[in-house]
Amino acid sequence: MNEKEVESLIKLLDDPDTEISRHVEDKLLSYGNEVIGYLENAWSQSLDTLLQERIENLVHRIQFQNVKRELELWHIGGSFDLLQGMLIINKYQYPDLDEQKIINQIEDIKRDIWMQMIYEMSAVEKVKLINHIFYGAYGFSGNTTNHQDPQNSYLSQVLESKKGNQILLAVIYSIIAQKLDIPVYGVNLPQHFILAYVDENPTEDFHVSQNVFENSILFYINAFNKGFIFGRKDVDAFLKQLNLKPLNHFYEPCSNTEIIQRVLRNLISAYEKLSAVEKVAELEELLSIFPEPK
Question: What pLDDT, on the 0 to 100 scale, is given for residue 30?
Answer without folding.
Answer: 77
